[in-house]
Amino acid sequence: MTMTETAPNASGYKDFTIGAFTFSRDEYFATISWPTGTHQLAIDVFLRAIQRDVAWGFFYGTVNFDSVFGTVNHYGNVDMFAGRFNEAYRKAEVDYNENFTHDDLMAAFKSVLSDWTNAGYDPFAAPMETGSAYGPSNGNNDEAVTRRRVVADRMVSVPGDEQIRTDASGFTVNRGFADVPQNEPIVTAEPGYEDQVCAYNMYAYISRSDVTWNPSVVSACKESLYCPTSEEFILPVIHGNDRVEWFVQLSDEIQWDVEDRDTGAKRARVIAKAGDVAAMPADIRHQGYSPKRSMLLVWENASNRIPEMIARGEVGVRPVEF
Amino acid sequence: MSRYTTVFGSLENYEKGRVVVINDDPKAYVFSNVFEVANMSKPYEKVAVGKNLEYVLEAIRCEGTSEWRATPHDEFALVMDGTVRIELFDPTDQLVDPAAQGSVALAGEPTGSRMGAVTATQGHMTLLPAGKAYRFHSDGVGVILLQTIEGPDTIYRWAEICQTD
What we know:
The structure holds two protein chains of two kinds.
Chain A: E1 3-5, E2 16-18, E3 21-25, E4 29-34, E5 37-42, H1 43-55, E6 62-64, E7 69-73, E8 77-82, H2 87-91, E9 96-101, H3 102-116, H4 142-145, E10 186-189, E11 199-201, H5 202-207, E12 219-221, E13 224-234, E14 238-240, E15 245-249, E16 253-260, E17 266-273, E18 276-280, E19 284-301, H6 306-311
Antiparallel strand pairs in A: 1-2, 2-3, 3-4, 4-5, 6-7, 6-14, 7-8, 8-9, 12-13, 13-19, 14-19, 15-18, 15-19, 16-17, 16-19
Chain B: E1 18-21, E2 32-33, H1 34-40, E3 46-52, E4 55-65, E5 69-70, E6 75-81, E7 84-91, E8 104-105, E9 112-120, E10 124-128, E11 133-149, E12 154-155, H2 158-161
């Protein structure tokens, strides 16, 4: 892969060429060009999306930044596309797709994210909790955009694993969860069993998250991963599934816009309230809307065999038939 | 005082959402509600509310004292309502094949060493360690969402618990 970057433009931002794609930003927009077309996104929309793509390591399946541009993870290599999952672009034959190694595209996206994110703007934060993404270049916010994603090996709070969040560790309770009880479970371990008798307050843990729409692994039953996340405003990407994933709404409400993964045709709207459980089939794409900060438990099967199993017809796109 | 009120569900107070179909089958979303399922369940039935190949999420109504169970792999119990006491036990003998999937019920009390206990309320998650035994107790009624693998006692009643139209 070739990646080049230019000297800063009139707004102070570098242009980037990644393969046959070029990326440039001005005070309001990101502009993406490829051999057969060009596309623009509002810069805050672009930065929130590329932040998730970077933080999630291209995630499971397709990360659509919007209805035109995005990435498909093949776990080791990644497609970057324009118009691939947009029927009109495909019919007009102005869609484009290019494959990169995971590491090359990740390095390129990190460069774009670092250069284009201004001081005071945090793409992980809810819009009411951060500054503006707009305007001429004004420093960077590398501390925010390079946050470490939490991945527990066994469970948060287990000795040697990820630890709970506290004021002392820099994680204060979010304004949207100020009423969430912070009591910890009563744990009584017999001598010698202190590292196996373990429990923690997961709701308090989520209430102290300083990011939105960024699932982190808190428990792992082999390849079954609990990935809770705090949600506010709009999921910054339209996630196209390559496997079934599940949502358990732990608090408040999220409404999900569900579309056909390949065409974008509307299929359903899922209104999830506290205690609701819903599957996202493997042939859809979805985007969530959370009017108040809410707690969502994303449940994933991390096995990389699943996309091939679906392609071979060994498992369906629905989790169960009844 | 916060101007936001966080809404958690409970057995006595929950509001179920729904799938609003545009061009699809609502059964594709396997849409249920943990509290509704627990309200319909007998104590300690392990009712699947989620399934991803061999992995399951089980909604468990906690009422009184459960049987002892042994698990071949880590499980995780998230209390979503009520207060649940979880006792953990280190059995002298191997009670379950480590290669097996899902927990198994034990006949009577295991022999071995008491490991300890956790008293958990809403939002608390407890590790149920691989190779160990555990039982639940609730003086009232509680709800656990269990992260595990399907086993001999996993109950499937999708048509009863999920939105179908």
